[in-house]
């Protein structure tokens, strides 16, 4: 694949990278660094992309693997606070919606790295087979994990909403 093709693909699907960066990096600088690292790893690995899956599935896998490695390195260097308040929303301010979104993001932030990946893929309307392909687990395992995660997120986000 030529460089121009790769740049076009990354540009068309950069929201995937941004979502992963927002979930796995806290500061603006770390998000930028992670974005660059994901893009670099995708460029290095593009010759291994055979087209057996969708490009977006492959890109999610690269992004998530890079983010997990990035987070492990970051955790070794310093402890990371659990603030999610730095997330910016582009919608009009609706206090009730803002509170619900903030509660959901706090609940998601409290999940394990793998669970965050599952929720991200779910929110992007990936089916369980595709999610399993990205994460290297079976569709049945995804279904079980998703049922547990939905319940957990509901409970946790309600805690944040009602215990402020």
Give an account of the 3D structure.
The protein is mostly helical. The protein folds into two domains: 1-81, Rna Polymerase Sigma Factor, Chain: A, CATH 1.10.1740.10; 91-164, Arc Repressor Mutant, subunit A (Orthogonal Bundle). Helices cover 73% and strands 0% of the residues. It has eight helices and no strands. It has helices spanning 3-12, 14-24, 28-45, 55-77, 95-109, 113-123, 128-135, 139-162. Helix 3 packs across helix 4 (55-77), helix 4 crosses helix 7 (128-135) and helix 7 crosses helix 8. The model is unreliable at 78-91 (pLDDT under 50).
CATH topology of the largest domain: Rna Polymerase Sigma Factor, Chain: A
Number of helices: 8
**Count of individual domains:** 2
Largest sheet, if any? none
**Overall morphology:** globular
The CATH homologous superfamily of the largest domain is called RNA polymerase sigma factor, region 2, helix turn helix motif
Topology at a glance:
Blueprint lengths: L2 H10 L1 H11 L3 H18 L9 H23 L17 H15 L3 H11 L4 H8 L3 H24 L2
């Amino acid at each position: 694949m030529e460089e121009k093709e790769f740049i076009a693909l990354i540009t068309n699907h950069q929201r995937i990278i941004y979502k992963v960066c927002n979930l796995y990096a806290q500061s603006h600088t770390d998000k930028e660094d992670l974005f660059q690292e994901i893009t670099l790893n995708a460029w290095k690995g593009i010759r291994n992309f055979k087209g057996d899956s969708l490009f977006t599935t492959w890109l999610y896998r690269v992004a998530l693997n890079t983010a997990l490695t990035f987070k492990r390195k970051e955790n070794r260097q310093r402890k990371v606070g659990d603030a999610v308040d730095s997330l910016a929303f582009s919608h009009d301010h609706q206090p009730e919606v803002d509170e619900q979104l903030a509660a959901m993001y706090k609940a998601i932030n409290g999940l394990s790295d793998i669970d965050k990946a599952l929720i991200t893929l779910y929110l992007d309307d990936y089916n369980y087979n595709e999610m399993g392909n990205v994460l290297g687990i079976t569709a049945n395992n995804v279904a079980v994990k998703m049922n547990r995660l939905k319940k957990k997120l509901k409970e946790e986000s309600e805690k944040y909403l009602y215990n402020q």
